[in-house]
Specification:
CATH class: Mainly Beta
Low-confidence stretches: 16-20
Number of strands: 9
Helix content: 10-25%
CATH superfamily: Lipid/polyisoprenoid-binding, YceI-like
CATH architecture: Beta Barrel
Strand order of the largest sheet: 1-2-3-5-6-7-8-9
Radius of gyration: 21 Å
Strand content: over 45%
CATH topology: Lipocalin
Number of domains: 1
Mean pLDDT: 91
Structural class: alpha+beta
Largest sheet: 8 strands, antiparallel, barrel
Length: about 180
């Protein structure tokens, strides 16, 4: 009987230990990514259907359908999907990375934390390592992540040189 009690106590401690080490993952299906050309105001689009996850261990992912980008001008949207992004051939864009300065973020305390995120961005069949500076804000135990960066389209083998060569990208996700 004593062995059963010891086994129960050891099992309970192991279970509690695993619970303490378990990561907390927050997610959204309606994150927002916008891009805009610094040289042509017509090259501006928004995608409000971005799937993203952020974990308190620093892992961060984004995934979106390229056809989810909406332009003010229907003609720009058509050119974007058919000629530039080739959305039928390359339907998704994905990012997988980690918060580099995770020790500076407290996921259990409300506040605003500057972060640097490093990871791989895959778009148009090309994967590039990128670093994005941003902010993780914790409010009522829920994180919001925001960041911005510049993409050189030729790095992803997208020839939009007749319109723009770079786009400014902004990311904003409110997690549950």
């Amino acid at each position: 009987m004593k062995q059963i009690s010891i086994l129960a106590v050891v099992t309970a401690f192991l279970f509690i230990g695993f619970q303490a080490d378990a990561q907390k993952v927050f997610a959204t299906r309606n994150g927002r990514i916008t891009f805009e050309s610094p040289t042509d105001g017509d090259v501006k689009a928004v995608n409000n259907e971005v799937t993203s996850r952020i974990a308190d261990n620093g892992q961060l992912t984004f995934s979106l359908l390229m056809k989810g980008f909406k332009f003010k001008l229907a003609e720009m949207q058509e050119h974007f999907n058919d000629q530039y992004a080739e959305s039928t051939k390359f339907p998704r864009a994905d990012f997988k990375g980690n918060i580099v300065n995770l020790k500076e973020v407290n996921f259990t305390k409300d506040g605003s934390y500057k972060v640097s995120v490093k990871g791989d961005l895959t778009m148009h069949g090309v994967t590039k390592n990128v670093t994005v500076n941003g902010v993780v804000e914790i409010k009522a135990g829920k994180p919001t992540a925001r960041g911005s960066f510049v993409i050189s389209l030729k790095d992803f083998k997208i020839d939009a040189s007749s319109v723009t060569e770079k786009v400014d990208v902004e990311v904003s996700c409110q997690y549950q």
